[in-house]
Design a protein that fits this description.
This protein is an alpha/beta fold. The protein is 27% helix and 22% strand. Helix 2 packs antiparallel against helix 6 (292-302), helix 2 runs parallel beside helix 7 and helix 7 packs across helix 8 (326-339). The longest helix has 16 residues, at 305-320.
């Protein structure tokens, strides 16, 4: 079955690895290049999910806190507001609106000091190892930080012109929060090689719109990554306070948090709990994220890199008692893999999302992790959190109208020249099967590779 597909064009010019076993018995159903290393792309989120559920637990929640430092007299805070980031990847602008309302309820109408961000829980490295530098303006490579809102993005509206060559207007969705935008994009008949998109120089805050927008297109909204996640959160908090008729100064009264320098790795000890750092301060507001299992469902169904990397860094905090970092989180994942009997020399992990082209996994390693996960108390919860083929998430249009639709709970992965698919299949004759399909050196049109990958899954589900 698989060997015949491997000989068919265009798979015959790529490298194909497949491994599938019955989860109940461990019986091997398919094996081809099971011990060869492949680039996992987004299927790496499966290992992250298993490590996170074991380390943090399904009900773990990220926590953001707001402290008032200084005495309050006559409605005036004679000090600073300190927003402490807890690594929450889904903290939103609306949450900071709630925080401002709590400040108002506390009787504060003005802040004599300033607004400060505490981002000490994670190190300052915003992007993972070997991530493409030209992806940093986009939402899928938004900067990772202990404090962020709206996944470190701002919404931008692309408004089309009427004729070829007309300039496309780029507008920030209010409030602008002090950001500026400039559009260099134009209308064009052919946009295949230069689609309209966000752009930005690293180290510069202004947002650019570049590329070409197709003639006849309607206005569309895109999310563009910000330069500094913590600064973005403070800008939003200041806006929400102003909207609640609370004024704030710009010069802090007390010392600023010792935040990590941007883009440096730090694997030192994790900071103490905020209540120790801000002894004598008043805790005004605490916000908790949804439980981890719900975050994993969002991450897996949407293939959300931002959520993945925040979870990865939190692994280092909770398991190693270190400042959250990419290498720290990767260490936790690698230790789990080795504990499950996977040869440490057959895996190479640099991030949680699979964005790094330097990540490597074998089909056998994936299936080993999937088998172990299925036997854990959280196994069924994770399987339910995965997208279902032909039904939802990134698999909504895969395997539609086949026996595999609704029977396959899995994670897909794709980056240039790499295609992967791993998860669980409830087969017709072999019960639940854990499988991994990995393709490297996939050149040319990717659609035929996806079709052949789906054919393997269909055959697996129907296997006598």
């Amino acid at each position: 079955m698989v060997d015949a597909i491997a000989r068919r064009p265009p798979m015959d010019r790529a490298h194909l690895g497949v491994y599938a076993v019955e989860t109940s018995s461990g019986r091997v159903l398919v094996s081809r290049q099971a011990d060869h290393e492949f680039t996992p792309a987004s299927t790496l989120k499966l290992l992250l999910s298993s490590a996170a559920l074991e380390t943090l637990g399904p009900q773990f929640r990220f926590e953001t806190q707001l402290y008032a430092r200084g005495d309050i007299a006559g409605g005036r805070l004679n000090g600073d507001l300190i927003l402490v980031g807890g690594g929450d990847p889904v903290l939103a602008s609306a949450d900071l609106s709630d925080a401002a309302a709590v400040v108002s309820v506390a009787g504060i109408t003005s802040i004599g000091g300033s607004l400060l961000a505490d981002q000490t829980l994670f190190d300052g490295r915003r992007w993972g190892p070997d991530w493409p530098w030209d992806g940093t303006p986009f939402y899928y490579e938004a900067p990772i930080a202990a404090l962020s809102i709206d996944e470190s993005t701002v919404p931008v509206i692309f408004k089309p012109g009427l004729r070829e060559g007309d300039r496309v207007a780029g507008e920030l969705v209010p409030p602008s929060l002090g950001y500026t935008i400039r559009s260099l994009a134009v209308m064009a008949a052919d946009t295949d090689e230069d689609p309209i998109r966000c752009s930005r120089r690293i180290g510069a805050a202004p947002i650019l719109v570049v590329g070409r927008m197709p003639l006849g297109a309607s206005a569309e909204t895109s999310r563009c990554a910000v330069e500094d996640a913590g600064d973005h959160a403070l800008r939003r908090l200041r806006f929400e306070l102003t909207s609640a008729h609370i004024s704030a100064g710009t010069k802090p009264v007390g010392p600023a948090p010792q935040n990590p320098p941007l883009d440096f790795i730090d694997q030192g000890p994790a900071p103490p709990p905020p209540i120790q750092n801000y002894a004598g301060s008043r805790l005004l507001w605490v916000h908790q994220s949804p439980p981890l299992i719900d975050l994993l469902h969002t991450m897996l169904t949407k293939s959300d890199n931002f959520i993945a990397e925040h979870i990865l860094k939190m692994l280092a905090v909770k398991s190693l008692r270190q400042t959250g970092s990419f290498p720290g989180g990767a260490t936790v994942e690698q230790r789990l893999a080795v504990r499950l009997g996977i040869d440490k020399d057959t895996i190479d992990i640099h991030d949680g999302s699979g964005l790094s082209p330097a990540d490597r996994m074998t089909p056998r390693a994936f299936v080993t992790i999937l088998q172990w996960t299925a036997r854990q108390p959280f196994g069924e919860d994770l399987i339910a959190a995965l997208p279902r083929a032909g039904i939802d998430g990134t698999l909504a249009y895969r395997l539609v109208g086949t026996d595999a639709a609704g029977r396959v709970h899995a994670k897909s992965g794709y980056m240039q020249h790499t295609i992967a698919f791993a998860g669980y299949a409830d087969t017709l004759h072999h019960g639940r099967v854990a499988f991994a399909i990995m393709v490297d050196d996939a050149t040319g049109d990717v659609v035929p590779y996806f079709d052949l990958e789906d054919e393997i899954v269909r055959d697996l589900v129907d296997l006598p």
